[in-house]
């Protein structure tokens, strides 16, 4: 087979070579000179026609070869001889052809026949992947296409509401290939949601982990998995050495697993990929440094949709397999129908498979016990022994679990096995994963005992029934993936032969009907923005701190302020905590978001202090001379700018820090107390500057606060100092006051800036682009590229959605509009423009909307909307 594939790959290569040869041969210039211009045109037209004909024939041949290769790769060897004959015929036809060029003066010119070598062709796989892999190497399940083609009709599937009535043949399982069942006790702990992080830890998490140590010691066959390192590290810091050694022993025995081990179970929609990675690093590094363990299996059961970015990050950080849960119910059904719930998750841009991550998708509605043993939640709930009569929670289907006894174990085991078999039939391997847990489970010792004792009786009975062909036991996530790999005869994380390759992501998530979880994309936008600000400051602080540490060869400055490293750690962990899927999402309670925000604010203050101290050391020998450009009074306040008070007697210095590795040249804006200033760069040269007003309302501006704009150039990872001093009116020829235009109603009687009324459309431009804004609508209409002289028409509209009048409405999680979007109308629009040599902008004030468009003149195409 491998030899045939190599041969056919070589054949494809030959077809391409012949095609290129004919194109070149046909386009070769004749040695004769055409006597007239019409003859030359005729010659060119003839060449084009000949090339088109040859390309068409070759294209048809290539298509036929590809079709035969596809059939061959699927095991169809019928077309082998036909394919060989096709290639031979093609080669023969090309060798027998005599090439003519367009006649000159009606005299044909015959070229010598080209002789092709008949020797064998050997291709290296490094040279031509087709020689080894005739099939396309991209995903064979592309989610973008899948979403576009599925009906999303949501028919009633019976007991599995979003699926179908699953049937199976018991003969599927044999003595040689039994059904392997791994029941995996777990407890999902949200680091903040209905309660704050600290309240959850005190009320539940610490008890869960205390019980874990006690019950794993007591029950020798019990297993447990736990994922959130933010909680686990807090608990670990309170344990004695004996307890820590027990935990390490459980890990070494394989009865305890800490999958993913991120600081949190991160959101995968709102979080930036760098923050997703940082929280993963923070958790994994803590675990390795304190416990000596590195996880290689990932567990993501609660984030509201799953991103291929997370799969990529896991792959690049050494993980071998992963599990996901919250995927649109129609997608789950579609994959389950073809037993494709386990797949190699590949990045769409990857043509080699280097990014492949083996992924298991849970098939049912939720990760709680009623929806994990099989398709019928009414039955599965009867095997959640936390819900035994007398407990705090019961089964919604009104059939309570009962203890397993000698009298009922046969019937109970057979019923449970039926669910296991139905679930297993949705997968390929006959190894089935059964999570046993939910949010904050196992916080009481009784639950550990009830689950263990009753399930162990069921396992013992099942395993003793040789004709049932089942092996059931407690296990971990790693146990499951290891058994699956062994069953499929591959290494863990590798692709079994018949498993699909999937590309794309799993957004937007819906758990039922048209309940799309896209509301959280925009919930609490203030704190989503705060997240990005803290993230940027944290990265800048880490770099500045590192540069200062390197420069501090005497270890004098930073040894005296050792808490700076602790401040960085606190900031990293606070930002990591906010990546939790009930934090940055905005789906937590109000008082919980305040708790998160207080931590973020403290982190922001910490990072600013670190940047300040590091800059002082690098730029001024460690003297306390710098303050930051803005402050926040509270966790829910907008930043306030520091006003630099200028003096004509003394220069004020401003340091600009570039945390990027590339050079930057940008327009900066600082707030000063004078409209007239002199700005000097690091070489003491006066540079161009511009003063803009600070507006107090649509028409009025402040008379003691102004925005000073100028271009700053900073090298990669560099710091640069500029100086500013107060100037008199007209003293600095390189300083300009912006001009103000009111394009609708409006007047301004202040005399600092020139202003005038202008009832025409607004034009803003720099050296490379020009834009036009309508004075009537206040929106962008036209963008012109002045270099290419290309004008593009633009239409900007603001729209809004209403919410349904039913009981179920849009909220923090869901987006449930009452129909299509409606255009936001505004009875009047106030349009104001501010123009200067460095920056010009238009502000349009509408009902509920301020639309701002800015064009900057800093040496490039800068358009901000």
Structure write-up:
Belongs to the glycosyl hydrolase 38 family. InterPro entries: Gal_mutarotase_sf_dom, Glyco_hydro/deAcase_b/a-brl, Glyco_hydro_38_C, Glyco_hydro_38_cen, Glyco_hydro_38_cen_sf, Glyco_hydro_38_N, Glyco_hydro_38_N_sf, Glyco_hydro_57/38_cen_sf. By secondary structure, the chain is α/β, with parallel strands linked by helices. The chain has five domains: 2-131; 180-503, Glycoside hydrolase 38, N terminal domain (7-stranded beta/alpha barrel); 522-618, Up-down Bundle (Substrate Binding Domain Of Dnak, Chain:A, Domain 2), CATH 1.20.1270; 642-736, Immunoglobulin-like (Sandwich), CATH 2.60.40.1180; 738-865, Golgi alpha-mannosidase II, domain 4 (Beta-galactosidase, Chain A, domain 5). It contains 17 helices and 34 strands. Strands 1-11-7-8-6-5 form a six-stranded mixed beta sheet, sandwiched between helices. A six-stranded mixed beta sheet has the order 24-23-31-32-33-34, with no helix packed on it. A five-stranded mixed beta sheet has the order 14-16-20-19-22, with no helix packed on it. α1 runs antiparallel to α2 (37-73) and α5 (197-218) packs across α6 (229-236). It is globular and about 100 Å long. The two termini are 59 Å apart. Residues 1-37, 96-121 and 123-135 have low confidence and may be disordered.
Q: Which blocks of ≥5 consecutive residues have pLDDT under 50? A: 1-37, 96-121, 123-135
- Please state the average pLDDT score: 88
Helix- and strand-based class? alpha/beta
Rg calculated over all Cα atoms: 35 Å
Strand content: 15-25%
Shape: globular
GO molecular function: carbohydrate binding; mannosyl-oligosaccharide 1,3-1,6-alpha-mannosidase activity; metal ion binding
GO biological process, one term: mannose metabolic process
Pathway: Protein modification; protein glycosylation
Organism: Dimorphilus gyrociliatus
């Amino acid at each position: 087979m491998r030899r045939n594939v190599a041969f056919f790959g070589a054949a494809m290569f030959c077809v391409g070579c012949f095609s290129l040869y004919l194109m070149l041969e046909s386009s070769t210039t004749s040695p004769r000179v055409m006597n007239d211009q019409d003859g030359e045109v005729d010659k060119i037209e003839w060449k084009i026609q000949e090339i088109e004909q040859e390309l068409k024939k070759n294209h048809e041949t290539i298509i036929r070869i590809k079709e035969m290769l596809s059939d061959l790769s699927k095991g169809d060897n019928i077309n082998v001889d036909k394919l060989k004959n096709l290639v031979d015929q093609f080669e023969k036809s090309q060798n027998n052809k005599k090439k003519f060029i367009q006649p000159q003066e009606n005299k044909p010119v015959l070229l010598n026949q080209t002789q092709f070598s008949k020797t064998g062709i050997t291709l290296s796989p490094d040279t031509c992947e087709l020689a080894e892999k005739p099939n396309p190497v991209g995903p064979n399940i592309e989610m973008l296409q899948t979403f576009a083609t599925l009906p999303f009709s949501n028919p009633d599937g019976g007991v599995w509401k979003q699926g179908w009535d699953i049937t199976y043949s018991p003969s599927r399982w044999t003595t040689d290939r039994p059904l392997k069942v791994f029941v995996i006790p777990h407890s999902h702990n949200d680091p903040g949601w209905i309660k704050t992080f600290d309240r959850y830890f005190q009320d539940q998490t610490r008890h869960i982990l205390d019980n874990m140590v006690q019950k794993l010691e007591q029950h020798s066959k019990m297993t447990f998995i736990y994922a959130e390192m933010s909680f686990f590290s807090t608990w670990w810091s309170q344990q004695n050495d004996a307890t820590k050694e027990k935990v390490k022993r459980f890990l070494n025995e394989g009865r305890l697993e800490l999958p993913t081990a991120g600081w949190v179970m991160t959101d995968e929609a709102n979080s930036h990929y760098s923050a997703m990675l940082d929280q993963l690093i923070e958790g994994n590094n803590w675990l390795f440094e304190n416990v000596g363990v590195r996880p290689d299996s990932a567990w993501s059961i609660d984030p509201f949709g799953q991103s291929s970015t997370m799969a990529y990050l896991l792959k690049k950080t050494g993980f071998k397999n992963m599990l996901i849960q919250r995927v649109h119910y129609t997608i789950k059904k579609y994959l389950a129908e073809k037993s494709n719930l386990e797949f190699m998750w590949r990045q769409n841009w990857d043509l080699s498979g280097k990014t492949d991550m083996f992924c298991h998708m849970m098939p049912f509605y939720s990760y709680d016990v009623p929806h994990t043993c099989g398709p019928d939640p009414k039955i599965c709930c009867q095997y959640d022994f936390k819900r035994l009569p007398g407990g705090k929670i019961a089964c919604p289907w009104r059939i309570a679990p009962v203890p397993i006894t000698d009298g009922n174990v046969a019937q109970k085991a057979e019923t449970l096995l039926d669910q296991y078999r139905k679930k297993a039939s949705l997968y390929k391997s006959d190894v089935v994963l059964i999570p046993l847990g939910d949010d904050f489970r196992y916080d009481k010792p009784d639950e550990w005992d009830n689950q263990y004792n009753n399930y162990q009786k069921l396992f013992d009975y099942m395993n003793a029934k040789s004709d049932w062909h089942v092996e059931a036991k407690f296990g971990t996530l790693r146990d499951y993936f290891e058994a699956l790999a062994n069953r499929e005869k591959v290494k863990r994380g590798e692709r079994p032969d018949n498993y699909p390759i999937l590309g794309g992501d799993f957004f937007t998530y819906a758990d039922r009907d048209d309940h799309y979880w896209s509301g959280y994309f925009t919930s609490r936008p203030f704190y989503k923005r705060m997240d990005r600000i803290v993230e940027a400051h944290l990265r800048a602080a880490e770099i500045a701190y590192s540069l200062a540490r390197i420069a501090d060869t005497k270890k004098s400055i930073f040894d005296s302020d050792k808490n700076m490293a602790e401040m960085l750690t606190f900031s990293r962990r606070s930002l990591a905590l906010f990546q939790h899927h009930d934090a940055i999402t905005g789906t937590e309670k109000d008082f919980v978001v305040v708790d998160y925000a207080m931590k973020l604010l403290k982190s922001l203050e910490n990072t600013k202090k670190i940047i300040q101290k590091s800059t002082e050391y690098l730029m001024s020998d460690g003297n306390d001379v710098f303050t930051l450009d803005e402050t926040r009074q509270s966790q829910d306040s907008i930043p306030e700018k520091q006003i630099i008070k200028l003096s004509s007697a003394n220069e004020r210095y401003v340091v600009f820090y570039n945390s990027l590795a590339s050079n930057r040249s940008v327009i900066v804006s600082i707030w000063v107390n004078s409209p007239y200033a002199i700005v000097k760069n690091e070489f003491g040269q006066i540079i161009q500057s511009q003063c803009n007003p600070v507006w107090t309302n649509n028409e009025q501006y402040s008379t003691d606060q102004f925005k000073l704009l100028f271009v700053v150039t900073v090298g990669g990872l560099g710091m640069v100092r500029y100086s500013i001093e107060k100037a008199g009116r007209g003293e600095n020829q390189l300083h300009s006051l912006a001009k103000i235009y009111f394009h609708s109603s409006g007047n301004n009687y202040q005399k600092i800036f020139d202003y005038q009324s202008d009832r025409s459309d607004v034009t803003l431009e720099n050296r490379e682009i020009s834009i036009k804004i309508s004075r009537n609508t206040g929106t962008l209409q036209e963008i012109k590229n002045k270099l290419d002289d290309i004008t593009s028409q633009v239409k900007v509209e603001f729209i809004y959605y209403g919410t349904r009048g039913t009981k179920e409405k849009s909220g923090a999680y869901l987006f449930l509009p009452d129909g299509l979007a409606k255009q936001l109308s505004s009875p009047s629009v106030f349009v104001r423009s501010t123009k200067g040599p460095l920056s010009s902008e238009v502000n349009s004030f509408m009902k509920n909307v301020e639309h701002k468009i800015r064009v900057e003149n800093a040496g490039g195409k800068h358009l901000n909307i």
